[in-house]
Amino acid sequence: MENYSFFDNVNKFVGQAAGYLELPQGLLDQIKQCNSVYQMNFPVKLDNGNYEVIEAYRVQHSHHRLPVKGGIRYSMAVNEDEVKALAALMSYKCALVDVPFGGAKGGVRIDTRKYSESELEKITRRYTTELIRKNFISPAQDVPAPDYGTGAREMAWIADTYSSMNTGELNALACVTGKPISLHGIRGRTEATGRGVFYGIRTAVDVTEDMESLGLTPGLEGKRIIIQGLGNVGYYSAKYLQEGGAIITGIAEYNGGIYDPNGLDVEEVYQLKQEKGSILDYKNAKNIQNSIELLEYDCDILVPAALENQITAENAPGVKAKIIGEAANGPVTTEAANILQEKGLRILPDFYLNAGGVTVSYFEWLKNLSHVAFGRMDKRYEELTNRSMVAAMEEITGHQLSDTQRSSLVRGAGEIDIVNSGLEETMMNAYYTIWEIMKTKETGSLRIASFISAMEKIATAYVARGIFP
Ligand code: NAD
Predict the structure, then answer these.
(1) pTM
(2) Which residues line ligand 1 (CB under 6 A)?
(3) Domain 192-353, CATH 3.40.50.10330 — does that match?
C-alpha cells in the first residue's frame, strides 16, 4: 500500500470510462486534472499556551461549473493526494446527480480527539481566513460542507468567520452548507447522506433481475446488513435501512465492532456510543476486537461508511456480502473491486451512493440565495386547495373521512418534505441512468457506468463554453 495513490486510483476508473467515450485527449486531460491546489500551514495557540503549526488543504478539481463544492475533512490521514482524489470524486458526483457545481475538497490534518472545543474553533476560523485570503471560499466560487470529522458546529464557525469578513455581502451565508438550522441551514441536511444511501440501496435491491442473478430476493425486507462506521453517514444509513425492513447484524467502529445475527437496534447502539464513546458490550451481541474482521462476516449487504481503503486485495477474497454499498468515499481499492467483480458482487459506487449530502447541500445553497425556506410561500395554499378538494369528495360520495385520514390528505409540503422528495427523486433517477448505461454499454460495473455518465456531462459543459471543440 506504500506507493498507493487514491487520486491515481480515481483516474484509473476515469481512464477505463474514457474507453467508452470518444473524447479528445486534451479534454480528457482537462477533466482528470485538479484545477487549483492550495496547501497551507498556519499556527494556532493551544489552551496550554504552546503553538502548533497545522497543515491544511483545499483543492478545486473542476471549474467546469461554479461554484465548486465539497466537504472539509478533519483527519490525520489528510494529505494532498487524498484531498485531490476526494475533490475529483466530488466533480463526478455533482455531475452524476445533476447538481450544477464543480468538485472540491478541503482537509485539515488533525486528530479532533486531541483538541478542546475552543482549539477546534480557533483552527476552523483560521483555516477559513486562509481560504478567504486566496478566494477559496465564497457563495459564487467555492462552497464547503461537512465531511469526516466535521459537522454543523464547524460549518457555523466557517459561516460566521466568512460573513464577519465580508460584511454587506447579501449572500454571505451561502458560502458554506451543512449549517445549523438556526443559521439558515436546511432541514434534512444532517441526515441527507445516510438517507440517500438508503434510497440508493433500496432502489438497487428493487431490481428483480439483478437480485435473481445475485441469488437474493427483491426488496429490502429481511436483508442482513453490516455497517462500518457509526458516524453521521453510517448512523443515518443504518437507521433508515432498519426502518425500511433490513436487519442490521453488525456494526464496526474504530475501537471494535459488534455482531448479532438476530439484529441490532441501531438507535440503542448509537445512544451507547454517544454515552460511553464505544459500541462494545451491547446486549447479547458478540464483541469483535479487530473490527475490520466484520467486513468478512456473512451478510447480504456490506456498507462501509467510515474511511477509504477498507476493502483491499487482502480482505476482498473473504467478503461474503452480495452487495457492497459504498457509503464512504473510496472504501474499496481498484484491486479489491476487481476481485469482488470476479466473484460476481454488485458494488454501488461511492460517488453515486453518498451523493445525498451534496444534493441537499445544493438545496441549502438555493435556500440561502433565495432567502426563503422551501414551502413557506405555498404550504398553506396547498393545504387550502387540498381541503376544498377533500370536502368536495366527501360531499359527492356522502362518506366522511376520519380526522387522521383528512389531515394526512390535506397537509401541504413543508421544507423537510420538499427536501426529502427532491433527494429521493435525485437518487432514484441517477440509479436508473447508470443502470441503463451499464446495460447498454455492457460496462459490467455501475462504477464505470457512473463515470461515463458524469464525464459526458462535464465534457458537455466544457464544450458548451467553447473551451473544446
Ligand atoms: P464521521 O466523522 O461522522 O463518522 C465516521 C465514523 O467512522 C466515526 O464514528 C468513526 O469513529 C468511525 N471510524 C473511524 N475509523 C474507523 C475504522 N477504522 N473502522 C470503523 N469505524 C471507524 O464521518 P462521516 O461524515 O460519517 O463520513 C464517513 C465517510 O462518508 C467518509 O468517507 C466521508 O468522506 C463520506 N461522506 C460523508 C458525507 C457527509 O455528508 N458527512 C457525504 C459524502 C461522503
Answers:
(1) 0.94
(2) 71, 146-149, 193, 228-234, 252-254, 291, 305-307, 327-329, 354, 357
(3) no
